[in-house]
Specification:
Layout lengths: L8 H13 L3 H14 L5 H8 L3 H16 L18 H16 L6 H12 L5 H10 L16 H10 L4
Helix pairs in contact: 1-2, 2-3, 2-4, 3-4
């Protein structure tokens, strides 16, 4: 059985008022999540089904609506970003700068060397894909020569070989 949140009469009245006046779909969903939970006693998952959002979103809507009604400022949204990074972007940039200097001077950037240095810095093993993703974040890409020219005409080349004079 899902959780049934408690709402004061003031919050429910505020939600009804917003639902009646709003022309914004998201604002309506926020207000309806409060009304459906508070008045009808529906659980968060059931309200989520009715408004087309997840249970977690309904809980967030409820909290946001209460904060908005009480006049508190919304704190900065903390969604997105890299939460499981070994190093910050700036630390990665500083770590890779030596490797990029060598590569820009005509040297070859060897991923296994970067990986070994990263493992030494972190004190534990890391996957090779971690290094490739880190290099990609900083604009490095593997440059490999093509096997053939993209506009090459195979039949014209074969015709040239057959008709050319050998000496």
């Amino acid at each position: 059985m899902g959780r049934r949140p408690y709402f004061s009469a003031e919050v429910i009245d505020g939600a009804r008022e917003v639902a009646r006046k709003t022309r914004d779909a998201d604002e309506l969903r926020r207000a309806m999540s409060v009304v459906l939970s508070g008045v009808m006693g529906l659980t968060l998952p059931r309200v989520g089904e009715m408004i087309g959002r997840s249970r977690a979103t309904v809980a967030r809507f409820d909290a946001e609506f209460r904060a908005w009604l009480s006049g508190r400022q919304d704190k900065e949204k903390n969604w997105g970003g890299r939460r499981r990074a070994y190093l910050t972007f700036e630390e990665e940039k500083e770590f890779l700068s030596g490797f990029f200097e060598v590569a820009s001077g005509g040297g070859i950037l060897v991923v296994s060397e970067v990986r070994t240095a990263l493992e030494k810095r972190l004190g534990h093993k890391v996957a090779e894909t971690t290094v490739y993703r880190m290099l990609g974040r900083h604009g490095w890409q593997k440059i490999v020569p093509r096997r053939r020219h993209p506009k090459a005409n195979k039949s014209a080349q074969e015709g040239f070989k057959k008709n050319s004079k050998e000496k």
